[in-house]
Amino acid sequence: MRSSTHKYKQQHLGFSLVELMVVVALISIIGAIAAPNVVQMTRRARLTNAGNEFVGAMQTARMTAVSRRETVSLCPTADGTTCANSAGTRWIVLTTGNDVVRDINLPPGIAVQGSPNLVAANFRVTFGPSGFSKAGLGAAAPTTATLAVCGSNITGINAMDVTSSMGRVTTARRAATAACANPGEN
């Protein structure tokens, strides 16, 4: 016969309902604190990716211009085959022979603005056979062109300026004061 004290010495495995509720509450609190940071981190990653796409597009345009010995442009497009005259969410690298070398589609929440000289040049960054860049097509066009890639729904540093100066491509991060302010106008 078993003794009654033996029943009370047995270990009970598992969690009580109170312990489970405390763990769920802690996970909910941590999730509520972390969720906004994850959203901002995702938006910043999209901004960085879009900026890097423009860096790659400018470098592709330059290499294509030098290797083919022809003028190549980075410009906005509406149809994917010709240059448009205003900034949009789709950009192409286009040769003088109308070959599209690269096509960029910006993710939602990302916009592009240009420096004043680039706006005057219909947002076209042109690379000649020598590899040098300019804003627009004219012989007297400025040799520096800057695109501002911006995220209006990003807090803090929400713009990445991509500049081509004499063919050298550089980037800089900044906080745009407007939804997507033109570079150099903040």
From TrEMBL:
Record bears the keyword Transmembrane: yes
Transmembrane segments: 12-35
Taxonomic source organism: Lysobacter soyae
InterPro entries noted in UniProt: N_methyl_site (IPR012902), Pilin-like (IPR045584), T2SS_GspH (IPR022346)
Name of the protein this chain belongs to: Type II secretion system protein H
Domain of life, source organism: Bacteria
All residue ranges annotated as the General secretion pathway GspH domain in the record: 50-153
Pfam family, one: GspH
SUPFAM superfamilies listed in its UniProt record: Pili subunits (SSF54523)
Annotated Gene3D superfamilies: minor pseudopilin epsh domain
Protein localization: Cell inner membrane
Keywords: Cell inner membrane, Cell membrane, Membrane, Methylation, Transmembrane, Transmembrane helix
UniProt family annotation: Belongs to the GSP H family.
Membrane topology, as annotated: Single-pass membrane protein
Keyword Transit peptide carried by entry: no
